Amino acid sequence: MPQTLSSTSMFTPCGFSPHLHSSKEGEQGGLIFQDGNLTSASLDALIQHLIPTTDYYPEVTYIFTFLLSSRLFIEPHELLSRVCHKCIEQQRLDDPVLDKARIRKFGPKILQLLTEWTETFPYDFQEERMIGHLKDMIHRIAPCDEAYWKKMNQLLQALNQKLATLSHGQEGIVKISSAVSDKLVAFKTKPPSIQREILSVCSDPYTLAQQLTHVELERLSHIGPEEFVQAFVHKDPLDGTKSCFSEQKKTSNLEAYVKWFNRLCYLVATEICMVSQKRWHTGERAVLLM
After folding, report:
1. 114 plus 70 within the same structural domain
2. I need a labelling partner for 18 at 20 to 30 A (CA). Which of 33, 122, 164, 256 fits?
3. In the chain, how long is the greatest CA-to-CA distance?
4. What is the mean pLDDT of the segment spanning 203-211?
5. Does 248 or 267 have the greater pLDDT score?
6. Is 35 a member of any domain?
7. Over 90: is that where the pLDDT of 116 sits?
8. What count of other Cβ atoms lies within 10 Å of the Cβ of residue 184?
């Protein structure tokens, strides 16, 4: 049976951590360790290591690391399908009569895993297949405890609110991108006398910095951690394997933030140059008057 992982050794050069008690070379449940570090494992063994049981729950750091990195090799909906299938087999959730005592020990753990997944990677659950797997798992354990129905409703409500917020943010990105394009055209056609300086809009640099910080934090909140993985995945032209991201690469929030940050840098640099230019002209006039 898998053991709880040590959070202090999660981020090792090998990528995953050892068992708490493992300090020698060997293989345990398909996980190969060397000097206390997990050096090799099959995808199936790592999936098994993710699945909770009646007396085991993976560490949060392992859950996050595996859910993030596994999408390089398996799509989230397929991963959740395999997790649910293994849970059904191991906990015998297909039996006509369920072992309520065992399910009451297992239920809170699988619900916690699903909750952490929905909170950390909500974009995964934009697919109906993901919602279907989630509901099916809860429906299987709910007859053993009425509290599971309430937990499922709370989980789905929180997920729907999160997805609605993220969807609103994505719609805002489209509108802002369109507005920026229009303003760039107008900016090029306007004479310099009509263009306003930023300090004429907000004369207090501290207040302006605060407002820009709020904007930045709001834009950052829409970026999912999986976008960074997708953004830095480089397909090897000599590799014949098919990447999970080859057909659809969802990095719109990250790309929008990078564009906004670049525009902000240009704005700051422009304002600095304009102030420097004004000072130069002021000094030049002073010299001429002397």
Report:
1. yes
2. 122
3. 101
4. 83
5. 267
6. no
7. yes
8. 11
The parent domain of residue 88 ranges over: 42-163
Q: What is the pLDDT of residue 3?
A: 42
Q: What is the pTM of this model?
A: 0.70
Amino acid making up residue 54: T
Laid out side by side, the sheet with 37-41 consists of: 26-28, 31-34, 37-41
Give yes or no: residues 139 and 213 share one domain. Answer: no
Map tokens 């659950």 to a residue: 125
Residue 141: give its domain's CATH number.
1.20.870.10
